[in-house]
Write a structure and sequence with these properties.
- The protein is mostly helical and 267 residues long.
- It has one domain (2-260): ABC transporter involved in vitamin B12 uptake, BtuC, CATH 1.10.3470.
- The chain contains 13 helices and no strands.
- It has helices at 7-32, 38-55, 60-79, 86-107, 112-120, 128-147, 149-157, 159-164, 169-191, 193-199, 202-210, 214-239, 243-266.
- α2 (38-55) runs parallel beside α4 and α11 runs parallel beside α13 (243-266).
- It starts with 6 loop residues before the first helix and ends with a helix.
């Protein structure tokens, strides 16, 4: 508990827990929709957005946020297009975002530090307004997930059945991807792309390995995300490690044990 007496560690702990609460429940939908590489793609798009903003002396975060939301809107349209597999759009946006980021960085020498901050994050430098933005945005997203639980779940799990039940799949896909875009953009700004991507996949994947029903999977994913974040931040304090990579490593270990557990049971 002595780490709570250190002001900057309280700062890191609050940022990590807020992002875990925001992304861990969404990770179940991400795994169910088979879009696990969306986080990596959006990281490249965000990097390109930050580089573009720096090149034209603009504020990086709004540019990255707008590009992220537009990217997720593109994903929502591809999800409804039977002729264009979603994986195709994800792959092309990943390649295009990576190339654009590199080219823009080459034209903006002073942008390298900002790009590294986006890619790897720095929980020590999260400004107070961003904390409040996290609270409002993630709180709103949790409320939306609770109120639209049935629509989100059935459109992710079985869109054909959703259409048969009269649910407007295209509308709910758009709502989901916009919500996901806002969550990812804010998370990347706060803790970096690597940690945001891991929290968007690992908790949900681990939960779905362990539990059979989808309802408890959301609760377990949230518990896994928050517990791993708190444990990793404590370990990083005691062992003098970087907080972000430590959280990623612990989440990877948790998923590994979950995967081995279900593989052993099936064997």
């Amino acid at each position: 508990m002595d780490l709570l007496t250190v002001s900057f560690m309280r700062h890191v702990l609050l940022a990590g827990v807020l992002v875990a609460l925001g992304l861990a429940p969404l990770s179940v939908y991400v795994v169910l929709r088979r879009i696990v590489f969306v986080g990596a793609t959006v990281a490249e798009i965000s990097s390109a957005g930050v580089a573009l903003a720096i090149l034209f002396n603009l504020e990086p975060f709004p540019v990255a946020l707008i590009l992220t939301i537009l990217t997720f809107l593109g994903f929502s349209r591809a999800a409804d297009n039977p002729r264009l597999p979603l994986e195709t759009l994800i792959g092309m946006l990943y390649a295009g975002g990576s190339a654009t980021a590199v080219l823009l960085i080459a034209k903006s020498p002073r942008g390298e530090g900002d790009i590294l901050n986006v890619l790897f994050g720095n929980t020590l430098t999260v400004p107070l307004p961003l904390f409040w933005m996290m609270v409002i945005a993630f709180g709103t997203l949790l409320a939306i997930q609770y109120l639209a639980y049935k629509e989100f779940l059935i459109t992710a799990y079985d869109p054909d059945m959703a259409r048969a039940l009269g649910i407007r799949v295209e509308l709910w896909n758009t709502i989901f991807y916009v919500a996901l875009g806002v969550a990812v953009a804010i998370a990347i700004r706060g803790v970096g792309a690597l940690l945001a991507f891991t929290l968007l996949v690992a908790p949900g994947a681990a939960a779905l390995c362990v539990v059979a029903s989808l309802g408890p999977a959301f609760i377990l994913a949230t518990v896994v995300g928050v517990a791993a974040t708190v444990a990793a931040i404590a370990a990083s304090y005691w062992l003098d490690l970087l907080a972000g990579p430590t959280i990623v490593a612990i989440l990877a270990v948790v998923f590994g044990f979950s995967y081995l557990w279900v593989a052993t049971r099936r064997a």
